[in-house]
Amino acid sequence: MEGDASMHGETTLLDELGIAHAVLRLVRDGAGEVRRASLLACSRAFSDQTSLTTHTGDRFLREAFGVGARTALAQFVDAARGATHVLSHYYTSSNRWFACYCRPSGDDCLTVVLIDVTGYRSDSALGLQREQAYRSFIEHLPMIAILRVTAPQPVSLFSAGSFREITGYGPEKGSSPESWLEIVHPDDRENVRREALMLVSEPQHESEMEYRIVRRDGNVRWVRSYERQFTSDDGTMQIVQGLILDVTDRKRKEEELREANDRIQEQNQLLGRLARTDALTGLLNRRAMQEQLERELRLLSRGRAGFSILLVDLDDFKGVNDRYGHRAGDRVLIHLAETLERHLRGSDVRSRWGGEEFMVLFTETSGEAALNVADKLRIWFAEHPTEVDGQTLPVTFTGGLVEATAKDTVDALFARADAALYQGKNAGRNRIVGILTTGATIEAPDPARGRRRPV
C-alpha cells in the first residue's frame, strides 16, 4: 500500500492481525467536486469480508453500497475533511454491516479499517464481544492511544496502548491533560500545555509535536504526539483523539548524526586552516598570502588607499641551525612570528613566505610609514634574542619594503621587495631598505647618527 513509513508500519500490523483495511481515493470532476470513490488497494481480509477487490476500482461505490452509494460518498468526503472519524456502513456486496474507521492518508485518500458489526446489530452479546476485541486491538498497539470528550463535560474514555511500557506508569496518568503534564519534562511542559489548550478551544484543531517525558524510573524519553479535535456524528460532543509514539531511538540516532556532522565540519575547518597556515608558526602560508595580495591589488585598482609589503629574511639563519641545531632554529622562527603578532596592527597581515623568509602586508599604509614600523620591529627583535634551553641566540633580520601600485602583480611586488631585501643584505644586513613608487630608495635613520643610513 502507498504511504509514508508510519503508515506502512500500521498497515503491516493490520495485515498481521487479519484486520480488514483498504485505501480509497476520492475522484473529483473539473469543478473540484467529489463524484466517486475509487478502491486503490485492500487487504485479503477486506476482500473476504466485502467481496470486493482492487479490480473494482471506480465501481467501488456502486458495487459496495448499491442505492446507498451517494450517502456513503458524502460520509467519506466528511471523513477526508476530518469531520467524521467512525462511520457505519451496510455493504450490499457482502450483505454485512461494518464500523468503518476512516483516516485521511494523503491528498484525497482515505485509509479505511473495517470492523464487522453485523452480528452486533442482531445479537448484542456478539456485538459486545466485537467491541472487546476492538478494545484489545487498541490496547496492544505499540504506542499510546488516547480518546477524550472535552464537551459538553470533560470525560476521559481511555488512554490505552503501550502506556506502561513507554511511561512506566499505569494508564491513570493519561486520564487527563493535567495528569499527563505531570510526567512531561519541565522544560517542555509549557509548550505541551499550550497545545492542550488549543485542542480544547479551537474546533478542528490538529497538533503534532515532539517533546520529552520523564519515566517513572527517572529516564528521559522522547515522544511524538498526533492529536486532533472533532465533533461527534450527532453534533453533541467535542472529542480529542490522538496517538503518542516513543521516538527516543530516532532522536538518539539524529543526535549521533548531528554530532558526527559537527565533527566532520570541525575537521573540514581544521583542514581549511591547515591549508592556509604554516604549521610551525601559525601564520598564513605563502599560498594564503598570495591570495590576500591579489585581493588587495584588486581593491587598489578600484581606488582604495595604497599598501606596502615587507619581505623579511633572518640573517645567517643557516649558521644558527649548524651551531645550535634545527630545534633552536625553529624557536627563532617562532620568536619572529610572535614578534610580528605582538607589535603589528590587527589589520596588518603576517605570513611565513618560506624557509626563514616572512612577509608583512601593511594595509592602507605608505612606504614611509611602513618603513618606520618595520625598523622598530627590527630593533626590538635584535634587542630581545631568542632563548633556548637557557641560552640566548642573538639573531637579526634584514627587510625589503616596497609600495604597491595599481599596475602591480603579486610577482612584480615580490620581485621588487626581494631586490630591496638583497640591497640590505649587501649593505651589511640588520637593516630595512625601502623602494617607493617613485623609484627612490630609502632606509630608516641610523640611531647613532640621527640621519638615514646610506644604501
Keywords, separated by commas or semicolons:
single chain; alpha+beta; Beta-Lactamase; Alpha-Beta Plaits; disordered C terminus; six-stranded mixed β-sheet; 455 residues; 15 helices
What count of structural domains? 3
| CATH-level-2 architecture of the largest domain | 2-Layer Sandwich
Low-pLDDT sequence parts: 448-455
DSSP E strands, number: 20
Describe the structure.
The protein is of the alpha+beta class and 455 residues long. The protein has three domains: 5-136, PAS domain (Beta-Lactamase), CATH 3.30.450; 141-250, Beta-Lactamase; 277-452, Alpha-Beta Plaits, CATH 3.30.70.270. It has helices spanning 5-17, 44-50, 60-65, 69-80, 118-122, 124-139, 163-167, 177-181, 189-201, 248-276, 286-301, 317-324, 326-343, 367-383, 410-426; strands at 20-28, 34-42, 86-91, 96-104, 109-116, 144-151, 155-161, 206-214, 220-231, 238-246, 308-314, 349-354, 357-362, 386-388, 391-393, 397-403, 432-435, 441-443, 445-446, 451-452. The chain has a six-stranded mixed beta sheet with strand order 12-13-11-16-17-18, with helices on both faces. A five-stranded antiparallel beta sheet has the order 2-1-5-4-3, sandwiched between helices. A five-stranded antiparallel beta sheet has the order 7-6-10-9-8, with helices on both faces. A hairpin with a 5-residue loop joins strand 1 and strand 2 (34-42). It is elongated. The N and C termini lie far apart (89 Å).
